[in-house]
Design goal:
This protein is mainly β. The protein is built from two helices and eleven strands. Strand 10 and strand 11 form a beta hairpin. The longest helix has 4 residues.
Amino acid sequence: MSNPQHNFHTDHRAGKYLTFELANEAYGIEILKVREIIGMMEITQVPRMPAHVRGVINLRGKVIPVIDLRLKFDMTSTEQTPETCIIVVDVTGHLMGLQVDKVSEVLDITSAEIEDAPIISASVDNSFILGMGKAKGRVNILLNIDEVLSPGE
């Protein structure tokens, strides 16, 4: 007889994700962390910040830091296009902006469509990856945005 507890097991990672692209790769963030999506706007540079911190924006009177996710993930920087935008996310009560190449869509990803991130080696830290979401014939790297961005940054 099968273990009845398995019938009720649901993956806490299942749910709605806002998907976006960086360097032609698909990523997803839990929709509950997303506050809004805005077009590119003037970013004020702040001296002596790490390269991936583009600066800050003034969004309706709130000063919000903007992180270039390409640089944060050690990808090459690229020219902005009309699709380049900023995803405003709530990271442990702090609003932060993520500059991404393009926002795709909101996907409802089920437990069956999520696999753990592959373990490359013990020296590679992938704690910021919630898992790999397989939806619509594409693999989306599901990010634990609280791990990607620490408010102390």
